[in-house]
Write a structure and sequence with these properties.
169 residues; mainly alpha; 75% helix
Length: 169
Amino acid sequence: STQSTGESIRSVFNNGGGPEEEGLLGAMDNYCNLSWENRLYAFAACFVIGVFLSVFGTIEMWLGRWTAFALLYSLGTLVALAGTCFLRGPMSQIQKMFDKERLIASIVLIASIVLTIVCGVVLKIGILALMCCVVQFCAFTWYTLSYIPYARNAVKSCFSGCTGLDCPC
């Protein structure tokens, strides 16, 4: 039988559609009784709010307000990332973040969020905060692409085709 688009999306985020995880982690993931449709709405809302926060942070950067920039942009990334917990469940999402294929992107993402805030809020060095923000964006993009089948390979091929160089990632 033909799967609906919603069922296809659900199978991607539900460990390939397999049985729910048992024990404490599974219980934490199943605490919420939202329907799949409501989970998608919550994910979309978090993603949109995260994008708006990041855009407002970027506006603050152009106004020279580095502290606001670092905080808003990083908060936007965190809210967008938190939205994915509605798709899998919080504990399952955290576990997937540290799978072999996402480990480096996850570590770089977390480190760049922390460093963006440190550079913008504590050190108040705008150019460093901006550099960390660029790394944050790239890490979040690379992390997100890991959930789309063959997306990373497509990006690597595009990079190689455009530059004539092998992609270092």
